[in-house]
User: Which sequence fits this backbone?
């Protein structure tokens, strides 16, 4: 068994896929630097830097995918999709239906997301709920190196647009690039299990849309995604020592949503706490409430999410993002 | 009226000292996240901002502290914002990429290219509400490839908006050489959108002042936008802790961390032909070499010593000025580090 850091795993799996499939090309801003290890292995024809022209290169990535390539388009941050959302919203997501199912855009959009390192509210958003809201987009949010590698492979095999989000707290390279800048004077609350872990010798694609139970628990089901999965596990451990048995379900993808796994778990416990780093309103947490209601499951429901724009000040940021304490309190409340 | 080099130099030096204080706080871990300084572009900022008056507006990029400081925003408030204090300029909510001063109609953004639409909007408001006022957009040459900036230039041209588009060209779009990802010539591009374009020496504050003077007067008198293109260097690269700069400053620590995985990947089974791999490797090496030969390392590209050379003729006055400014900034720093109000 090998162990890898999170982004190392993504790049390693990507390298395996690129070896097998010459249609895969990478492009985005600073990609020759960010993916330099892939550049020296696959050459500058397949690993290309772009101008700061997101509308052009994302839109082009969508159309190149329609025309037979398998582009991996890198966004510097998911927040910057605001600049070029049209390519996903009105094109990548629509072509399959508009063409009567005869044409698809199998583009992979790879981008760092999430907060916890002090860059402020324009650079630390999650936005997976915003993206998953649009029919036709697949949104993947892995929480461990093994899942990250397996899911990027699945994204590359998927016959439609996939947004693959890497949380910056899990990514050794992004956190250094944006968070520390090689300073030893700053510290971040990085979940060890998510940052580095065992990965298979040879990557196999994991199924997209299959949640995984990270911790079994009979009293309450915590459903989460990304870094918050690790925060939920920490809280569950603390609750366990107080006799509360909390299960943690890692969705791994926001769209498609593994409704079956959610319903099965919640039907058993009768309590659902959604922990979502994305915004609270009109998003994943509300969607999960609808999913269990529609399935006729009656349960006690709560959510721990990001309720407003993320403040710059570190201590305020730590309070607004889902953290162990907020999750702990959320569960205690459901147990009353 | 010729530019007053003494006051322009004072503006630049104060800003430099201020930003050096910011850099120290960042290195000490008291400022979080990224930190993009304007060190190296002071001549451009000072040469333009010195012309601004009440009612004028500024649209700033992620590198806006120097412009806000020179415009007159309280430096203690800026520092306390960067420290994340509740009595900072934006109550600790924005941070350095998201600084706002309603008082000076100055707005920053971490989204590259947004300076265009923002300046255009400020200029539209000026046309209705503050005739004679202008809006300045400060952005890098990397932003010139952003659609919204080009669209804003076109809009400003057809609506004859009082905008000064200032392109601070350091040749690098983050870690990518701009020449390799930019089609055509930037001044020609502006002219193609119907905006007069001028080249100004971004290392020479007097030249910048004169270039900005004409352009701003033109906008004030209702003759529409101008595009000013000025070259500069960013002494700290894209941001503090910038990897290419770290390689140059501390090669023994940085190079093995990059070279080992790079070599392993280069030699890895499966992938491109040797010639393609070599081409990839050349790209990486060329980037490192271009940093080693970087103009950032050449002191003649620093606008401050340039201005200072001219002022040396009155050494006593210069010494007094510099001493006074150093004291001023150290007072600012002391006030900024005062305890957080409870």
Assistant:
């Amino acid at each position: 068994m090998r162990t890898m850091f999170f982004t190392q795993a993504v790049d390693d799996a990507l390298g395996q896929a690129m070896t097998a499939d010459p249609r895969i090309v990478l492009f985005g801003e600073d990609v020759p630097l960010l993916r330099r290890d892939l550049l020296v292995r696959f050459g500058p024809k397949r690993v290309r830097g772009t101008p700061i022209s997101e509308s052009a290169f994302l839109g082009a990535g969508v159309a190149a995918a329609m025309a037979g390539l398998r582009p991996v388009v890198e966004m510097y941050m998911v927040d910057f999709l605001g600049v070029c959302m049209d390519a996903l919203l009105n094109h990548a997501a629509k072509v399959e239906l508009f063409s009567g199912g005869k044409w698809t855009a199998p583009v992979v959009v790879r981008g760092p997301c999430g907060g916890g390192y002090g860059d402020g509210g324009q650079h630390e958003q999650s936005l997976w709920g915003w993206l998953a809201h649009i029919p036709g987009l697949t949104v993947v949010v892995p929480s461990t190196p093994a899942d990250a590698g397996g899911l990027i492979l699945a994204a590359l095999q998927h016959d439609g647009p996939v947004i693959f989000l890497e949380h910056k707290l899990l990514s050794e390279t992004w956190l250094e690039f944006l968070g520390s800048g090689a300073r030893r004077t700053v510290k971040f609350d990085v979940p060890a299990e998510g940052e580095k872990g065992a990965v298979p010798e040879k990557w196999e694609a994991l199924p997209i849309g299959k949640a995984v139970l990270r911790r079994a628990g009979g009293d309450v089901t915590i459903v989460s995604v990304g870094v918050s999965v690790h925060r939920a596990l920490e809280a569950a451990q603390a609750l366990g020592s107080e006799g509360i048995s909390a299960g943690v379900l890692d969705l791994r993808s926001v769209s498609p949503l593994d409704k079956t796994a959610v319903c099965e778990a919640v039907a058993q416990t009768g309590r659902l706490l959604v922990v979502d780093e994305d915004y609270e309103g009109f998003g994943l947490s509300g969607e999960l409430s609808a999913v269990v209601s529609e399935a006729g499951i009656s349960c006690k429901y709560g959510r721990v999410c990001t309720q407003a724009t993320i403040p710059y000040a570190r201590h305020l940021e730590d309070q607004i993002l889902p953290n162990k304490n907020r999750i702990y309190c959320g569960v205690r409340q459901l147990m009353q | 009226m010729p530019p007053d080099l003494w006051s322009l130099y004072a503006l630049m030096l104060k800003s430099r000292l201020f930003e050096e204080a910011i850099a120290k706080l960042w290195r000490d871990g008291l400022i979080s996240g990224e930190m993009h300084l304007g060190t190296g572009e002071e001549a451009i900022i000072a040469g333009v901002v010195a012309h601004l008056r009440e009612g004028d507006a500024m649209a700033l990029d992620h590198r806006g502290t120097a412009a806000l400081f020179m415009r007159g925003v309280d430096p203690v408030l800026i520092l306390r914002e960067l420290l994340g204090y509740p009595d900072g300029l934006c109550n600790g909510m924005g941070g350095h990429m998201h600084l706002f001063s309603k008082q000076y109609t100055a707005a920053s953004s971490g989204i590259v290219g947004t300076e265009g639409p923002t300046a255009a909007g400020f200029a539209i408001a000026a046309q209705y509400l503050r005739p004679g006022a202008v809006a300045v957009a400060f952005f890098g040459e990397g932003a010139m490839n952003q659609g919204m900036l080009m669209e804003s230039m076109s809009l400003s041209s057809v609506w004859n908006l009082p905008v000064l588009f200032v392109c601070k060209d350091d040749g690098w779009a983050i870690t990518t050489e701009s020449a390799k990802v930019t089609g055509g010539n930037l001044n020609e591009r502006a002219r193609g959108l119907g905006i007069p374009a001028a080249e100004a020496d971004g290392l020479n504050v007097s030249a910048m002042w004169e270039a900005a003077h004409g352009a701003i007067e033109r906008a004030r008198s209702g003759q529409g936008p101008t595009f000013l293109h000025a070259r500069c260097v960013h002494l700290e690269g894209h941001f503090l802790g910038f990897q290419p700069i770290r390689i140059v400053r501390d090669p023994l620590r940085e190079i093995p961390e990059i070279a080992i995985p790079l070599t392993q990947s280069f030699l890895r089974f499966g992938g491109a032909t040797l010639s393609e791999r070599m081409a990839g490797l050349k790209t990486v090496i060329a980037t490192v070499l271009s940093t080693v030969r970087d103009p950032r390392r050449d002191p003649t590209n620093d606008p401050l010593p340039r201005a200072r050379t001219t002022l040396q003729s009155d050494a006593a006055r210069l010494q007094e000025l510099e001493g006074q400014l150093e004291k001023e900034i150290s007072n600012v720093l002391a006030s900024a580090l005062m305890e957080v109000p409870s």
Remarks:
- The two ends of chain B are 50 Å apart (CA to CA).
- Chain B has 14 helices and nine strands.
- Residues 40 and 234 of chain B are 5 Å apart (CA to CA).
